[in-house]
Design goal:
3-stranded antiparallel beta sheet; 303 residues; D-Maltodextrin-Binding Protein, domain 2; 3 domains; 5-stranded mixed beta sheet; 11 helices
Amino acid sequence: MTLQQLKYVIQIAECGSISTAAQKLFISQPSLSKAVSDLEKEMGITIFYRNNRGAYLSEDGTKFLSYARQVIEQASLLEQQYKSSPPTRRVFAISSQHYAFVVNAFVELVREYGKNKYEFSLRESQTQNIIEDVRTMRSELGILYISNFNREVLLRMLQNSDIKFHPLFTAKPHVFVSRNNPLAKKSVVTLEELSPYPRLTYEQGLSNSFYFSEELHSTVDSPKNIVVTDRATLFNLLIGLDGYTISSGILSSDLNGDNIISIPLISDEFMEIGYIRSESRPPDEISRRYIEHLKSYINHYKY
């Protein structure tokens, strides 16, 4: 087993394709395939399953990838210590549901490490993709919520993937609406009062199960529904169509402006928002710093 082979495994896992990984590594696809096959034979495991759409990690491969990343990180630290090389490039990735405070904390993290070399990723993604990103180590952390409705399903998925949910705070549901929406004058709203307005929700792809929805009360019937993929579009539609969406109630005026307001929704449900991470490896320095920034912004906007 060589460091080069471990780097190959990491690149394939990130690309989801041997051919794409070979292009990025500037080697031929047959050479890359042989290197990985030799490693699989040496370790006595199957690291990747192959199909027409690419390559994806086996259960053994997921665990192997975790160790491979640690070995490569430690090797980089050794080189930096003894070869007087430039500072190691910081690599960090987060996958999250669509929350402004996640972006705020990310901004602070980038500012903190801005004088160093870094490659950071922030992916606002679908719920199942967030779990998969953390499972395959594509992202160090994932941000999502758990409720009474989805708790059993999501916690079982996380447990099966050796991922743990760490609560950050619990919020009662609110609705986001435009300042010009007739509901904006109310101190609280009910689900019945929302019925005449377009309901805006985030696309969940092929796994469009109610359990993966980013919004509470996803099973409540609504005559007007619009599905979007990004936060900017959703907020534009809130303003342009007098729509609404159900969320945690935490808004950031420095990112979203003052055209959107938050109103408490009368409901027995709740949103327990937290971060998920793999239990197979401890959080690194950047992950710990990001969580600290996250908690700071949550406390600021919560109150």
